[in-house]
Design brief:
By secondary structure, the protein is mainly beta. It has one domain (about 1-260): Beta Barrel (Porin). The protein contains two helices and 15 strands. The chain has helices at about 1-15, 30, and strands spanning about 45-60, 70-85, 90-105, 110-125, 130-145, 145-150, 155, 160-175, 180-195, 200-205, 210-215, 220, 225-235, 240-245, 250-260. Strands 1, 2, 3, 4, 5, 6, 7, 8, 9, 12, 13, 14 and 15 form a 13-stranded antiparallel sheet that branches. A two-stranded antiparallel sheet has the order 10-11. The relative contact order is 0.24. Mean pLDDT is about 80; it is low at about 1-20.
Length: about 260
């Protein structure tokens, strides 16, 4: 019984995730000169993207550490659509709508839940083949664990638990444009906080017994990171595929496919 209790306390202190969404190519605001419907240059344009974002190791800790606090890692997968409105080939305003799930050390699992976000990307500097952009975004999702897995046994929650994740991410990145390949590198700042509600609950044990647990707010363990990526664009500059990896603050990779209309 003591082992189950210790595992449960460890898990509940660790049920937060460091998401981290794709930074994207700094050249995106000025990259698409043609569209599928219209090929003429405009002061504004519209793009649709599909995002596959896999954080296979997020790093986190309690917001107010105690002697019983234990750092841990998570896995998280986001699949989403991104709608982008471009102004004067300088500014992108975008919305993110999708679903995500959560896995913590093969002990905590959640079903896929709705996730959303919003952000902007502004082109700060453009010279020859180089583009420098600033990107900022807000992201949120509500996760509801249903059970814990301890020693390959399932222990369901007897009470409801909801965890609201809020994330603020900013990045500054530089790209170099060639005919169809556009590599880029950037630095990222990520602040991620999870707020559980309620702050405690009951875990159902074998034999029908219940175990009380409590939990607290948690934040991302590392704030600064790096993004490396490359975009492949078609000859008509109306579609591209972006591949990106992020390190230091998280271990993650993303795929982004985009069409301009």
């Amino acid at each position: 019984m003591s082992r189950i209790i210790s595992f449960s306390i460890f898990i509940m202190f660790s049920v937060i995730n460091l998401h981290g969404i794709i930074v994207g190519n700094p050249s995106d605001p000025c990259l698409y000169t043609n569209g599928l419907i219209s090929s003429c240059a405009k002061n504004y344009s519209f793009r649709i993207s599909y995002l596959y974002n896999n954080v296979y190791k997020g790093k986190f800790q309690d917001k107010f550490p105690t002697l019983s606090s234990t750092p841990s890692d998570i896995r998280y997968l986001l699949q989403a659509s991104i709608a982008t409105f471009n102004i004067y080939n300088r500014l992108d305003l975008y919305a993110i709508l999708g679903t995500t799930n959560l896995q913590i050390d093969q002990m905590v699992y959640t079903n896929r839940k709705f996730a959303w976000g919003a952000g902007f990307k502004v082109l700060l500097y453009k010279q020859n083949c180089f583009d420098l952009s600033l990107d900022g975004k807000y992201f949120q999702t509500n996760q509801k664990p249903q059970y814990f897995v301890v020693d390959k046994s399932v222990y369901p929650l007897a009470t409801s638990l909801q965890q609201t994740l809020e994330e603020y991410q900013a990045s500054l990145a530089l790209s170099y444009k060639t005919n169809f390949l556009i590599p880029y590198i950037g630095t990222t700042f990520l602040y991620s906080v999870i707020t559980p509600e309620p702050k405690g609950g009951l875990l159902t044990l074998p034999g029908g017994e219940s175990l009380f647990f409590d939990t607290s707010d948690s934040i991302s363990r590392e704030k600064w990171g790096m993004a490396l990526g490359i975009s492949i664009i078609n000859k008509k500059n109306q579609a591209n595929l972006n591949i990106e990896t992020r390190i230091f603050d998280q271990n993650a990779f993303s795929f982004l496919g985009t069409l301009r209309f």
